[in-house]
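Note to self: keep these together.
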Amino acid sequence: MGTKLKDQDILILLRTKGSVIHAFNLIVELYKERLYYHIRRILIDHNDSDDVLQNTFVKIWKGLPGFREESLLYTWIYRIATNEALNFLKQKRKRYFLLISNVEKQLSETLVSDVYFSGDELQIKLQKAVLTLPEKQRIIFNMKYFDAMKYDEISGILGITVGGIKASFYHAVKKIEKYLSEN
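Structure:
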C-alpha cells in the first residue's frame, strides 16, 4: 500500500509520551483523502460521506489509546471507516424504513444528481453497475478495483477469508460485466 513506513513513524509517535496529538494529526493528513473516497464509494452522497469521515476520525482518536498493533494501522483505520459507513447505511434504512434495494436506488439517483461527482457518462454507468451489487460485494469490489488493495489487506479489514474475498470479487466483476453489456 506504500504507507507502511509512514505508519511505522506514526506508531513510534503514538508510543512517545506527549506525541499522540501529533500522531493523530499525521493520521488525518495521511488518510483523509483516501478514506473520504472509500466512504464516498459506499455512501455516494458528498455530505453524508463528509459526516461519516468526521465520525471515523472521532472513533480513531478515541481508539488510539487502545490500539494494540495486532493489525496494521491502515487496516485498523479502514475497518473503522468501513464500519462507520455501513452503520450509517443501516441507520438510514431504519430511519426511512427503506428496503436495501430502495437504498441502492436512492444512492443511484444521488449519484446522477450529485454536483460533486465529476465523472463522465461511462463512470456513471460503472458506478450504477457497482450499486447493483450486494453490499459486501460492492465494498470488496471498491477496495480491490478503486483502492487497489491486495486480497489479504481487504481480508484484514473486513474479517473475511482471502478465498471469500477472491470469490466475492470474481462474482462482482461478472455481475458488473453483465450489467454493462445489458445497459
